[in-house]
Design a protein that fits this description.
Number of helices: 11
Distance between the termini: 60 Å
Radius of gyration: 24 Å
Number of domains: 3
Structural class: alpha/beta
CATH topology of the largest domain: Rossmann fold
CATH architecture of the largest domain: 3-Layer(aba) Sandwich
EC number: 6.3.5.-
Oligomer: single chain
Shape: globular
Organism: Methanothermococcus okinawensis (strain DSM 14208 / JCM 11175 / IH1)
Pfam family, one: GatD_N
Strand order of the largest sheet: 9-6-10-12-13-14-17-18
Helix content: 10-25%
Catalytic activity: L-glutamyl-tRNA(Gln) + L-glutamine + ATP + H2O = L-glutaminyl-tRNA(Gln) + L-glutamate + ADP + phosphate + H(+)
Enzyme class: ligase
Length: 431
């Protein structure tokens, strides 16, 4: 049992079954994890193992490949793909099952050669983190790197990102960056070692979107469970709504901007995109004059609190007493909170904390004028965010309090700055 190592092909016999696969790293010393031929992983308790036979010793993988000789095409746009982590453009070591970042341009082209027909590709690893470890400090780093790439001639930016917090980052970049080019975030729900991986088609679609004559921050992900198209979503109107489906990302209280066919490279606009540039051709005269400005001032002491039956209002006091400047409440229904925490909310607003109300229903709008609960909360100083996802309201409040005083932030919280608020007429048309 001790003679086998990561990367070895082994056969494990238990009381009733025989498993064959390649040994992968395991976080638990009491479990041996193998990758089977069907692409799935299985963990087997050592106590249940009767015997192990080593069928083939593994070799330490090497990735020293000769550089590709790729000529830059003048008729294609220059796209910078920045990696922050995740699996959307990683390579798999099939000896160990480990996933390694693949973010030189050569890596990307080797993995997805179709990109050569879409754009001139530049790849760069900015971060290498699990997306659940994303922080506002990392948002600032990403914004700075985007600025550098645009100043160096990028016609579009693709950000490869883990899916768990991608909608937070998309929202943050929407507020922080004003640029003349498309900035497209993309992820993968299924890792590239699985037959059902969505990584390749998502990335191809994201690069297609990044060559379009549009401005702003967007998210590209699978549009349905199959492999037929991807959607282009506005960065401040999209949310991950499923833990594992490939079409986990949905536009909320609006429809996607466009539908992308990664096979034909066609893009069908479903509504008018934000800040369209005139014409599809590359304007050589304006390439060196692309506008890019970033504002990385964020007030990080902003909290998001979810309302639930029996919530202890002292959690609000905790944030107030620890110097927090803003609190976003994810309320029930049209924007409600239990009366048992009214005194805590009053404590916050009396201390000058900006308190805003969103809804945990995800779809639909906040309206705090319908029921007495909402009207009482407004009397306490709570501001209803009429049409913002809780995550977007959190990021927007960070941005506002990082750049304005509290009174000005109150004025701007319900002003549409980057497409985060859907017009009533458009909302009524689609819902």
């Amino acid at each position: 049992m001790d003679n086998c190592n990561i990367g070895d092909l082994i056969s494990i016999k238990t009381e009733n079954t025989t498993y064959t696969g390649t040994i992968m790293p395991s976080l638990d010393d009491n479990v041996i994890v193998i990758k089977m031929k069907n692409g799935y992983n299985v963990g087997i308790l050592r106590d249940n193992i009767k015997s192990i036979d080593v069928l083939k010793k593994g070799k330490k993988p090497t990735y020293e490949l000769p550089p590709l000789k790729i000529e830059k095409k003048n008729d294609l746009k220059n796209i910078a793909i920045l990696s922050t982590g995740g699996t959307v453009a990683s390579r798999v070591d099939y000896n160990t099952g480990a996933v390694h970042p693949a973010f030189t341009a050569d890596d990307l082209i080797r993995a997805i050669p179709e990109l050569l027909d879409i754009a001139n590709i530049k790849g760069k690893a900015v971060l290498n983190i699990l997306s659940e470890n994303m922080t506002p400090a990392y948002w600032k780093i990403i914004a700075e790197e985007i600025k550098k790439e645009i100043e160096n001639g990028a016609d579009g930016i693709v950000i490869a990102h883990g899916t768990d917090t991608m909608h937070y980052t998309a929202s943050a970049l929407s507020f922080m960056i004003d640029a003349d080019i498309p900035i497209v975030l993309v992820g993968a729900q299924r890792s590239s070692d699985r037959p059902s991986s969505d990584a390749s088609l998502n990335l191809i679609s994201a690069v297609i979107a990044s060559t379009q004559p549009i401005k702003g921050v967007y998210v590209v992900m699978h549009g349905e469970s199959g492999d037929t198209f991807c959607y282009l979503h506005e960065g401040a109107k999209v949310r991950k709504l499923h833990s594992s489906r490939r079409n986990a990302f949905k536009s909320v209280n609006n429809i996607p901007i466009a539908k992308i066919n990664p096979f034909t490279k066609d893009i069908e606009y479903l509504r008018k995109p934000n800040k369209v540039n005139e014409g599809n051709k590359i304007n050589k005269e304006s390439e060196s004059n692309k506008k890019i400005s970033i504002n990385t001032n964020l007030e990080e002491k902003v909290a998001l609190i979810k309302i639930y039956p029996g919530i202890d209002g002292n959690i609000i006091n905790y944030y107030v007493d620890n110097g927090y400047k803003g609190i976003v409440i994810e309320g029930t229904g049209l924007g409600h909170a239990p009366e048992t925490i009214f005194e805590n909310i009053k404590y916050a607003t009396d201390k000058g904390v900006l308190v805003a109300m969103t809804t945990q229903t995800i779809n639909g709008r906040v309206n705090m004028n319908v029921y007495s609960n909402g009207r009482e909360l407004q009397k306490l100083g709570v501001i209803g965010c009429e049409d913002m996802l809780p995550e977007v309201a959190l990021v927007k409040m960070m941005y506002l309090l990082g750049n304005y005083d509290t009174e000005k932030a109150k004025e701007l919280i319900n002003k549409n700055l980057v497409g985060e608020i859907t017009e009533i007429s458009r909302f009524d048309a689609y819902y």
